[in-house]
Amino acid sequence: MPHWMTKAFKELVDGFGFHYHTAPGEAEAELAYMNRIHAVDAVLTVDSDAFLFGAPQILRMNVKNAKEKDVVEVYTADALAAQPNPNAFLPAALLFLAVVCGGDYDTIGLKGCGPITASALASGPLAQQLFNAAHEYDENMLKIFLKEWRISLCNELEHDYSGHIGRKHPKVAANVSDAFPDPKVLKLYSHPLTSESQLGNLVHSNQWFIPEVPDNSKLAATCGRLFGWGPTIASRFVSNIWDGYFIRKFIQLSSFSPIEHTQNDVSALKSNIRFMTRAKSSRTFVNIQLTMWIDALAAEAATSVVRHAGTHPSSIEGLSTTIQMLIWVPEPILQAFSSQKVAKFYAEHPRASFDGQLELYTPVLFNDLEFAAPSV
């Protein structure tokens, strides 16, 4: 994210009721550290450096089919270790691939060395030697080590002594310069700057999992200022904000919420539900459509925009007609909020017509070396 976006993005995250944590260095390195200490359950990324930095569990959205939004690819360290060639996913191999194929710190790598050749070399002793040196030597000692290591790398590329590559690559060997690999790049990978390496900058995640409701007033002021949504704040929030607002509210007032709440809080939210109209199945669960009263939310958002932008209330479009909206809520969330309402809905709409289409999701590990190795 560009630095000029950071302040505004934090405002939005805060307005939505989420928590943010500022990494002292590379984001993937910090996330991997947080994953290792169980501050987060998994790292959602398309950057393979997360495994290089030691993240034991990575999630990747199904980029092959954008319509399957409920499907994710799950990569775990244990599952990768059980693959036919587990050495390809060891830290030493991943470091070698990042250096040779190019990564975040050096996008070029070794010219002419593609992922197939690099992967073949990564399973041999050169990768482990480089990994050990990067972790054990200071920068001066590392420079001395690399002189001999480059000779070994060139010999392997030029003659394929080990037979791992399957062919000779004299042109690639000729591209190994005295500056490859950069010791500074190796140190960035082997000793990344994280909260773990900064004493006193510890990750406190115990409050991250307490559900908070988006701040409607704060978001209206922020979105009005950042995106110019002031005059159309009501319609914009119908399309982009309030469905999530209500779902978070249902979670906050559900039976499994750690937040203390009263029956009056629950009753107030129930009064916002005008109708429960229909249901549909996704691949994971049934969703129930609700018609929600939103006139109070619309008035609050408009007031916030007027107060912070200094505009006249008459400039807010569609305020008098924005009184209700349709939202889809996952049945498990609605069930935890009010099992009575769900039971009443199914009494009026037989559940059998929905359950027949339900397909429970099972995580699948894709043996996708292109993801596990740095892209080139």
UniProtKB/TrEMBL annotation:
<dbReference type="InterPro" id="IPR029060">
    <property type="entry name" value="PIN-like_dom_sf"/>
</dbReference>
<dbReference type="InterPro" id="IPR006084">
    <property type="entry name" value="XPG/Rad2"/>
</dbReference>
<dbReference type="Pfam" id="PF00867">
    <property type="entry name" value="XPG_I"/>
</dbReference>
<dbReference type="GO" id="GO:0008821">
    <property type="term" value="F:crossover junction DNA endonuclease activity"/>
</dbReference>
<dbReference type="GO" id="GO:0006281">
    <property type="term" value="P:DNA repair"/>
</dbReference>
<dbReference type="InterPro" id="IPR006086">
    <property type="entry name" value="XPG-I_dom"/>
</dbReference>
<dbReference type="InterPro" id="IPR036279">
    <property type="entry name" value="5-3_exonuclease_C_sf"/>
</dbReference>
<dbReference type="InterPro" id="IPR037316">
    <property type="entry name" value="Yen1_H3TH"/>
</dbReference>
<protein>
    <recommendedName>
        <fullName>XPG-I domain-containing protein</fullName>
    </recommendedName>
</protein>
<feature type="domain" description="XPG-I">
    <location>
        <begin position="14"/>
        <end position="86"/>
    </location>
</feature>
<dbReference type="GO" id="GO:0017108">
    <property type="term" value="F:5'-flap endonuclease activity"/>
</dbReference>
